[in-house]
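Section 5: illustrative case.
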């Protein structure tokens, strides 16, 4: 395998990694623009734009875009997050240049025709409705919103229906003009790829783009609070969150290892205590989700109305206990899980391309895998216990409850119990 990085004079970064023995490749454009870049009136437009990328250009119709990739047996897709919009394809080796040509076309020549906007608006409104009908999805949107209130980072990726209904051509084109500059674009490809050929083609397609000189975004502020929404559902959905480290903070790996030990699998503390021993829930997990300059450490469980008070108490007890008696065996198991998950995942060219793009976006370099493994291995029991204890002492956790929440405890009571 050979990883290479090149930056065009206008700031567009290109990363490739050849994986010997493969006959296919993943190639895509990762844009450093997402929900976080939206104004309040634009909430949802980054996601709308992602949908519109495949709806026609000056050179290709929407059908042409779909067929040109599928005619060669490929797959094309996109996604939007709070910090990124990604457009990517999986194709066979001879068709890498074709896929890159398509991405250049949709990024530089999309027409945003009124008829196609209306069609896709209906699709997105249906997607919003589906999300609202998925309790274990929507409760995390509410958790994000109460953790980061009145901030772009706390708003939903899909946006509210009332705003989506109003977006038009000028809104979409304006967002592209402001945020899709070459300094915000990362071209990443892995698998059966030729670095020099991709760089040469990228220079022809994107070399004339002028930088936008985007302004830095303010750091999100984790405020915390609670949202409780009663509804007649089969389960009560419980989420609890604390501000976690961002990618640039030294304890980012500690947070992820602690999340695995606390609620990352069948052997984790929360799974064993809440599900296996007490039968309080079917699903329970903890996660650490870092971003550029903030992060969230969260716990989720779905349970019955009669169990939610006990489940919350068990969660608090496990959080407190971890600060005192987390064991070396648990930390070692979590380190191994984290390394195995990372290394197994990177056997895929799609995961390799994603990793390179994310690393360039975060650190403007791609750390060697041995460096990452060393940082994981450096996390010891003392660090995990210290991190666990620090969560219990936070003054501003966030909580979201949805469904038949009954006598679920208030956040203030949980916070007091954490500090007791």
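Designed sequence:
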């Amino acid at each position: 395998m050979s990883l290479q990085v090149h930056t065009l004079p206008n700031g567009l970064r290109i990363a490739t990694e050849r994986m010997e023995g493969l006959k296919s490749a993943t190639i895509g454009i990762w844009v450093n623009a997402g929900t976080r870049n939206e104004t309040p009136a634009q909430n949802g437009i980054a996601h709308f734009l992602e949908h519109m990328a495949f709806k026609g250009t000056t050179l290709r119709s929407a059908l042409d875009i779909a067929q040109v990739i599928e005619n060669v047996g490929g797959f094309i897709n996109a996604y939007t997050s709070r910090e990124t919009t990604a457009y990517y394809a999986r194709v066979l080796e001879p068709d890498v240049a074709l896929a890159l040509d398509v991405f250049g076309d949709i990024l530089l020549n999309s027409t945003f025709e009124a008829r196609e906007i209306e069609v896709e608006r209906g699709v997105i409104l249906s997607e919003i409705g589906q999300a609202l009908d998925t309790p274990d999805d929507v409760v995390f949107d509410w958790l994000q919103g109460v953790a980061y209130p009145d901030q772009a980072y706390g708003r939903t990726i899909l946006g509210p229906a009332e705003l989506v209904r109003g977006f038009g051509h000028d809104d979409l084109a304006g967002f592209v003009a402001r945020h899709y500059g070459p300094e915000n674009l990362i071209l990443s490809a892995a698998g059966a790829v030729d670095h020099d050929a991709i760089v040469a083609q990228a220079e022809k397609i994107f070399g004339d783009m002028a930088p936008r000189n985007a302004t830095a975004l303010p750091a999100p502020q984790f405020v915390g609070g609670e949202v409780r929404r009663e509804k007649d559902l089969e389960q009560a959905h419980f989420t609890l969150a604390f501000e976690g480290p961002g990618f640039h903070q030294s304890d980012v790996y500690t947070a992820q290892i602690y999340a695995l030990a606390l609620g990352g699998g069948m052997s984790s503390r929360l799974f064993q205590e809440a599900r296996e021993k007490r039968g309080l829930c079917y699903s329970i997990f903890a996660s650490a989700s870092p971003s550029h300059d903030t992060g969230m450490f969260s716990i989720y469980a779905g349970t019955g109305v009669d169990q939610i008070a006990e489940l919350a108490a068990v969660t608090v007890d496990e959080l407190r206990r971890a600060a005192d008696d987390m064991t070396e065996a648990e930390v070692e198991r979590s380190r191994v899980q984290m390394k195995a998950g990372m290394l197994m995942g990177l056997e895929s060219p799609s995961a390799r391309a994603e990793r390179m793009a994310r690393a360039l976006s975060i650190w403007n370099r791609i750390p060697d895998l041995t460096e990452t493994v060393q940082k994981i291995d450096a996390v010891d029991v003392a660090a995990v216990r210290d991190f666990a204890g620090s969560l219990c002492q936070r003054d501003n956790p966030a909580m979201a409850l949805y469904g038949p929440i009954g006598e679920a405890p208030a956040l203030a009571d949980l916070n007091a119990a954490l500090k007791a």
